Amino acid sequence: MSSLTEEERKKIVEEEQIRAEARLHFSQVPAKPAPKKMSGKQKRNLIGLILGVVSLIFVLIYWYLAIPVLLLAALWFWKRITISKKYKLYATAGIIVVFAAINGSLAYANRAPSIQILEPADNQSFQAKDVILKGRVVPKGATIKVRGTNVTVASDGTFEQSIPLPHESNTISILAENGKKNTTISLTFNRTFTEEEKKEQARIAQQNAQEEEKRKAEEEANKPVQEYKSQIIKLNGVLQTSFSTIGPIFVSKPDFSTWTQSEITQVAGLSVIIEKSYEVARDMEVPAQYKQFHSVWLQALKKYADAMPLMRQGFDERSVSKFTRATQLISEGAKLLERSTAEFEKVGK
After folding, report:
1. How many domains, in total, are found in the chain?
2. 265 falls within a domain
3. Are 98 and 125 contained in the same domain?
4. Residues 107, 181: Cα–Cα separation, whole Å
5. Is 137 a member of any domain?
6. DSSP SS3 for 175
7. CB contact at 8 A, 188 and 122
8. Which of 52, 118, 137, 284 has its CA 20 to 30 A from that of 100?
9. Does the residue 325 lie in any domain?
10. Is 82 helix (H, G, I), strand (E, B) or coil?
11. Which pTM value belongs to this model?
């Protein structure tokens, strides 16, 4: 140490002092305390806070149940929260004020909308063919329909729409909707026509009346045709239903001696229906344009009608020749029916 200079000794001393101060500083830093567990009171307060928030959310959504919920919440806070009565009163009053403000705000936002017409005035008269309707709706978020058509509402709640005036008196309806609530008003705008416009209106009205009269006359003249076509469709449906039942029996059992009594009875019954169809077709009133079709169609039905008694006689007498002849007539009738269908479609074009 004696070989050290004065300056080196001072430096060593300073370093020792710095290290001593550092040890002193760190020895005075308190140890990190262990986390404390929540007391029963703190837990109750936390649960109360959570229930209060949930209750507030419930009130906002189901505002119509808010009053009993609010009273229950206030009672719960009154009994459970460990604060002075003074602050309990303040808290209860604050909740009521907040609820009243929120409920009032919701009621105001969801109120029935009101419509203010800026121009033109109701029952005003015009010579123009149309008029621009201008108005304002409150609240601004409400929607507007004029004559059932949506109209754009500006950010300040104003709207406008062109209204045609085709008649002397023109009544329009305006519907405003705000959520589930709506308001409807009606306005009447009058149109004053010039003499030239009145003459033109009279000409159009007369033309429309003539066209309507012509349409009714054509409809009346076409009524027999429609009735005839309806009868044809009905009778063809009866034939199709009958032969769709008879056909599979003929195909599966060409030898009628193998038919069961049930099949014979069924075919015999349908044969009577087919005969009646011919009688109905024979007595029908036929429009001129369907004469050719009806002639061919009636020939087809006559073949069927002639075949039916032969077929029944074949059953009763066990006559193969009569049954074979009936089958031939049915085949000839089918060809004629196909030809008549082409004639019917030709007339319809």
Report:
1. 3
2. yes
3. no
4. 11
5. yes
6. strand
7. yes
8. 137
9. yes
10. coil
11. 0.43
Ordered per-residue pLDDT tens for the chain, 349 residues: 456 677 777 777 777 776 666 565 555 545 445 555 656 666 666 676 677 667 666 656 665 555 666 666 666 666 666 666 666 666 667 766 666 666 666 656 667 899 999 999 999 999 999 999 999 999 888 999 999 999 999 999 999 999 999 999 999 999 999 988 899 999 999 999 989 988 998 999 999 999 999 999 988 888 888 898 899 889 888 888 888 888 888 778 877 778 888 888 888 888 888 889 889 989 999 998 899 999 999 999 999 889 888 888 888 888 888 888 888 998 898 899 888 888 888 886 6
**Domain containing residue 236:** 216-348
Within 10 angstroms of residue 276's Cβ, the number of other Cβ atoms is 14
Q: Which of 83, 109, 135 is the last residue of a domain?
A: 109
304 with 333, same domain: the answer is yes
The closest of 303, 292, 302 to 340, measured between CA atoms, is 292
Residue ending a domain, among 109, 126, 161, is 109
Q: Kindly state whether residues 235 and 327 are assigned to the same domain.
A: yes
Which H/E stretch holds residue 147?
Answer: none
Query: Does residue 2 fall inside a structural domain?
Result: no
The CA–CA distances, whole Å, from 298 to 45, 239, 272, 336, 337 equal 99, 13, 17, 9, 9
